[in-house]
Specification:
Blueprint (H helix, E strand, L loop, with lengths): L1 H14 L6 E11 L4 E4 L4 E3 L5 E4 L2 E2 L10 E9 L2 E9 L2
Parallel strand pairs: 4-7
Antiparallel strand pairs: 1-2, 1-6, 2-3, 4-5, 6-7
């Protein structure tokens, strides 16, 4: 039984930190639709994927809603050295 507990603990420690999402708010400075990325006013570069959920004030949105100057709230994960968006909500 103790061995099983150690295996479970090792698994939790090994994989526990991989899916931690960061959250941030800011204003979109630039949008590169061809490169699937944007830069916020603080210099943070965010990339989106086909799985990214876009919304506008909590309602379903689309890529065209991500415009320069828009205020956004985003959650993302670091994958392969990039900040990949999970969700982004245009708040203004």
């Amino acid at each position: 039984m103790r061995a099983l507990g150690m295996v479970v603990l090792a698994g939790v420690l090994a994989f526990g930190g991989l899916a931690v999402a960061a959250e941030m708010e800011g204003k979109i400075q630039t949008v590169d639709t061809a490169g699937k990325e944007m830069v916020l006013d603080d210099g943070t570069k965010l990339t989106w994927s086909d799985d990214t959920k876009i919304s506008v004030k909590g309602q379903e949105g689309k890529l065209e809603d991500l415009k320069e100057g828009a205020k956004v709230k985003a959650s993302y994960e670091e994958k392969d050295g990039k900040n990949v968006l999970g969700t982004i909500d245009v708040t203004e």
